Amino acid sequence: MSAEVVQMTTTQDASQQQTTDETGGDARGGGRPVVVAYDGSSASAAALTWAAREAGARSARLRVLFAADVGGADSGGAAVLAQAAHEAGVQLAEEGASWATQVEGGPVEVAVETDVRLGSPTFALVQASQDADLLVVGNRGRGAVAGALLGSVAFSVTAQAACPVVVVRGDTERRPGAEHPVVVGVDGSDAALASVAYAADAAVTAGAPLVVLAAWTPPEILAAGYGAAHLPEMVRKAEEAARGAAESALAWARERHADLVGEARPVREKPAKALIAASGTAGLVVVGARGYGSIGGLFLGSVSHATIHRAQCPVAVVRSLPQA
Fold it and tell me: How many CB atoms sit inside 10 A of residue 131's CB?
């Protein structure tokens, strides 16, 4: 099999009518689901726990996704291999779903689904993101889904997904709260607003402060030894641009959430290093998949790629404005 994915879905209680709680609400969780990649590895188990709590906080459905690439054997052998992979996937996904219902603060049983797909893990994850509100993955593991977060595939998933992607890494138990802010990087570009919107929503939902970080460094021409006479002025302008970008983004976020507690923080450092340093105390770091802003190109792929591989807490990668 190549990029094409054969979807073999087993959805718990899929044929049942929606169950309502005592208040008349939908106990299954309304809207788009939180989708988590799970393969039984410890890293995917951490992602599953994080996703279960997130689904519970959102009152959303949780979809446990297993994907495996069975390769391109001859037709007879491929069929046997595909069947075995599917059976193993069903078992793992169901075990993951059962685990999710036992996570404190997680979703109720009828709000958990399983999804088994055979084919390219990258394609499966990107395809699953089409109808998801959030895609959650671990940073390493075993098998096809686990391998999807290593090397170039990780970059592809975070860059191509149709919804925000959270990479659960670092201190996987740490979540946004009063002591652990949501940190979002901005660079003065319009693309940054997608990340700011997601970060502000996450901060308000968790009761956490929002830190809007704009990293800056002096113009490269100064590092080469030119323009020394203009150094103080050029440094001042670079810092002012960063401060302006951070303050502007924070003001925009407060238009969405009047009660938002936030801080605009210009930092003299390379963008990736600044975000990784901030992740030491953050509950969540939010970055864009790409961008073309005026402050160091914060949303270029190399920055998001470095952050998801080195951050000390979960990282959300956002590539488009959330749907209303």
Answer: 12
